[in-house]
Amino acid sequence: MAKNYWLLKTESSTYSFDDLLREGKAVWDGISAPAALIHLRAMRKSDEAMIYHSGDEKAIVGTARIVSDPYPDPKLDDPKRVVVEVAPVKRLAKPIPLSAIKADKRFASFPLVRISRLSTMPVTATEWSTLMGMAR
Fold it and tell me: Which domains does the chain have, with CATH numbers?
């Protein structure tokens, strides 16, 4: 089965990559936008994810692994609202600022550039590889 790649956005003042590192695992919840939920429902255990800090920072700061398949949010009585569990993999040696992504023509169709408000989004294997290269 092919591995998929994702980008998960979080406001660092609410929940940061440091929080994820400290806790070792987190339930990725609070997603309510229909388009973002479609992506959350498509995530599978062992998929890889980039953690993006929105707000003032606006940068990809670390990588994580999806450690559960999606399941209904236990805090809500709404089967459409799902969550996944996420574990940290590593902090990037060099955060990748949104400005650098936008300046790179290879990312013209990347959802982070095109649909900036979306909180979860797919990342192609090529985009993943290119972004990881930018982080070195």
Answer: 5-134 (3.10.590.10)
